[in-house]
TrEMBL record, chain A:
Family of this protein: Belongs to the ABC transporter superfamily.
Pfam families: ABC_tran (PF00005)
Major subcellular location class: membrane
InterPro entries xrefs: AAA+_ATPase (IPR003593), ABC_transporter-like_ATP-bd (IPR003439), ABC_transporter-like_CS (IPR017871), ABC_transporter_ATP-bind (IPR050166), NO3_transporter_ATP-bd-like (IPR005890), P-loop_NTPase (IPR027417)
Keywords annotated in UniProt: ATP-binding, Cell membrane, Membrane, Nucleotide-binding, Transport
A cellular component annotation (GO) from this entry: plasma membrane
Organism from which the protein derives: Pontibacterium sinense
Protein known as: ABC transporter ATP-binding protein
PROSITE patterns: ABC_TRANSPORTER_1, ABC_TRANSPORTER_2
Region: Disordered, residue numbers: 259-305
Automatic annotation (TrEMBL), chain B:
Species of origin: Pontibacterium sinense
Protein name: ABC transporter permease
Localization in the cell: Cell membrane
Keyword Aminoacyl-tRNA synthetase appears in the UniProt entry: no
Keyword terms, alphabetized: Cell membrane, Membrane, Transmembrane, Transmembrane helix, Transport
InterPro entries named among the record's database cross-references: MetI-like, MetI-like_sf
A GO term from the CC aspect: plasma membrane
Domain ABC transmembrane type-1: from-to ranges: 125-319
Domain of life where this protein originates: Bacteria
Length: 305, 335
């Protein structure tokens, strides 16, 4: 279990812009063990999604690279399944058919028709979606869509599960439900997970390690926080846990003291190219940010201090 | 026929909804409004038409008003029925004659000649419809796959876009002489399956109605959301699966916008082509009547104008119905 499963070494990425190359990431190094749950946290525009996209193979690193089980990652593939921020289900297919598309791709020739059907249904039941599996995305709620998105990713039996702010677009209650579901599933399957989040509580609750990123451009890994809380974790019990609160405070202090944004007052003043680069739904990201400040009221205190 | 031409399906739907709504009085008023307003529009139009027509004098008499158009419609229907009776009579006579011949000499060669009467107004409508649908189908067969290719391939789009923009605005009348000559030169066969005039019309129609479908399909295909493309990449979908499962469904709305525009253009182009090239069809009917110059001609042309409008409208409605059937997004408002 101690061997490195996924390794990012000296990852740089530059995007061409009319004003010359824009360096979004600078020397990102990260080693992830099998079965580990990693959260990437940082201010919006700091390149978290870019890191995830490089691991997914959707972007190519300019320098450095990613190794998965000793093999270089240079194109997207189902062994690195992605749960997208806004579910990204095909709107013309039902929940079942959406998962089916993925299962057909991965298990064609390896599973019989009946086995595939069982496998699809099994994965939908993991996320508690059996009751609505023949509904189309437009007929189900945002939380349910995200559940199907997770089922689709799980059904690919990925080596690494990549989640790009999976709960960012959901309301706080739905998000809590889904986090609990995810912890249950994780308990059972013990996947290797990289999750991007804006939510400090979410990060501490779910992760084995939290990777905190510095502000972009030329963002890199700032600090890594080991979360040594016993599993299964219970959000209510943890609320009064001193260690849990310590972890939270550590993340908050990184985000709001060490990596305080210079333009905290005017959040909309982002450079245009940065906006373009993080085209994985910037608007959803900011939504997540707002709800984060709601849930972590004492972040204001930290800022004031 | 002229009376129903602009009445859409709305009033009918409105009538039906009276029986379904929870608040009958209010909904009745609402649907009455929906019913009455188009009717008022119609009546005002007929009135202005009638008054205006009476005051326009041409060398072929006064301009046809609603009454004359009605008269001519009835006349055309009668003509059609008379022609059909003639045809039936012709075949009966021929059969009798042949039977007699066989009686005299069982080995006699029998000739069955087809009836060669003048095509009636309704025959012309049929010819036009067949031609326009064939041309439209042929154009779509080229435009949809081409649009998908162009939409998926940005360099190809850049390469072909100037050509598309160049040919898109070309009038059918400009193509027609070229098409006629090329068809006569190339389409040579002793026993042609289709008449030359049919091929000429078909090609002209196709050339003109290709573009909206092509461009809209390309735009629809290139506008597929980045997220869905990422999904396709992560799943490593093959090119074919990608097109079938992701590209086609997501570009259907744009594709249908193009198809509907194309069909509209095809219908307009066809009438012009038939008129100019003496291809059988409604356009030829109009031209023949114009050349004929009888006192009935203007009235008949007016009937043709209204019928052309009505058919164009119906064709669009049919496309809309198909679009509703095919579209995955049942909540989208299509009109």
């Amino acid at each position: 279990m101690t061997t490195t499963h996924l390794e990012l070494t000296g990852v740089d990425i530059e995007f061409p812009t009319p004003d010359g190359p824009f360096k979004a990431l600078d020397n990102v190094n990260l080693k992830i063990k099998k079965g580990e749950y990693i959260s990437l946290i940082g201010h919006s525009g700091c390149g978290k999604s870019t890191v995830l996209n490089i691991v997914a193979g959707l972007y190519q690193a300019t320098k450095g690279g990613v190794l998965l089980d000793g093999k270089e990652v240079n194109e997207p593939g189902p062994e690195r399944a992605v749960v997208f921020q806004n579910h990204s289900l095909l709107p013309w297919l039902t929940a079942y058919e959406n998962v089916e598309l993925a299962v057909n791709q991965v298990f064609k020739g390896k599973k019989s028709k009946a086995e595939m059907k069982d496998w699809i249904e099994h994965n939908l039941s993991l996320v508690h979606m059996t009751h609505a599996m023949h509904k189309r995305p437009e007929e189900i709620s945002g939380g349910m869509k995200q559940r199907v998105g997770i089922a689709r990713a799980l059904a690919m039996e990925p080596k690494v599960l990549l989640m790009d702010e999976p709960f960012g677009a959901l309301d706080a209650l739905t998000r809590a439900h889904l986090q609990d579901s995810l912890m249950e599933i994780q308990n059972e399957l013990n996947n290797t997970v990289i999750m991007i989040t804006h939510d400090v509580d979410e990060a501490v609750l779910l992760s084995d390690r939290i990777v905190m990123m510095t502000n972009g451009p030329e963002a890199t890994v700032g600090e890594i926080l080991e979360i040594d809380l016993p599993r299964p974790r219970n959000r209510i019990a943890l609320a009064d846990d001193p260690q849990y609160n310590q972890y939270r405070a550590a993340v908050l202090s990184f985000l709001y003291e060490k990596q305080r944004k210079p333009d905290t007052g005017e959040t909309s003043q982002k450079p245009a190219e940065e906006e373009k680069l993080a085209h994985n739904l910037q608007s959803e990201e900011t939504k997540g940010e707002v709800s984060m400040t709601e849930t972590t009221a004492d972040s204001e205190k930290v800022k004031a201090a | 026929m002229s009376h129903s031409s602009t009445k859409s399906s709305n009033p009918l739907a409105a009538l039906l909804s009276v029986f379904q709504c929870e608040n009958p009085i209010q909904s009745a008023l609402q649907s009455l409004k929906q019913l009455i307003l188009p009717l008022i529009g119609m009546l005002v139009f007929l009135l202005i038409w009638d008054i205006g027509a009476k005051n326009i004098h041409t060398s072929l008499g006064t301009f046809p008003g609603p009454a004359q158009v009605y008269e001519q419609t009835v006349g055309l229907i009668d003509d059609h029925q008379a022609e059909r009776q003639k045809e039936v009579a012709f075949y009966e006579r021929q059969e009798k004659r042949n039977a007699k011949k066989l009686e005299k000499n069982p080995d006699a060669k029998i000739k069955v000649r087809p009836y060669t009467g003048k095509p009636t107004f309704f025959d012309q409508i049929g010819t036009s419809l067949i031609t326009v649908l064939a041309g439209f189908f042929f154009a779509s067969l080229i435009a949809i796959p081409a649009g998908i290719m162009i939409g998926l391939n940005q360099p190809l789009y850049s390469a072909l876009n100037p050509l598309i923009q160049l040919f898109k605005p070309v009038s059918p009348l400009a193509w027609l002489p070229l098409v006629t000559m090329v068809v006569s030169a190339v389409y040579v066969s002793k026993d042609p399956m289709f008449a030359k005039s049919f091929i000429t019309s078909l090609v002209t129609v196709s050339l003109c109605c290709l573009w909206p479908t092509l461009l809209n399909t390309a735009v629809g295909v290139s506008g597929i959301s980045k997220d869905l493309q990422n999904v396709s990449q992560v799943l490593r979908l093959s090119f074919f699966t990608h097109v079938v499962k992701i590209v086609l469904p997501s570009s259907i709305p744009m594709m249908f916008t193009g198809l509907r525009l194309s069909l509209g253009i095809a219908w307009m182009v066809l009438i012009a082509a038939e008129m100019l090239a003496q291809n059988p069809g409604l356009g030829k009917f109009v031209w023949d009547e114009f050349q004929n110059g009888s006192s009935n001609s203007l009235g008949r042309i007016m009937v043709a104008v209204l019928v052309i409008g009505l058919i164009g409208f119906l064709l669009d409605r049919i496309m809309l119905l198909i679009q509703k059937k095919v579209s995955w997004d049942k909540t989208a408002i299509l009109r």
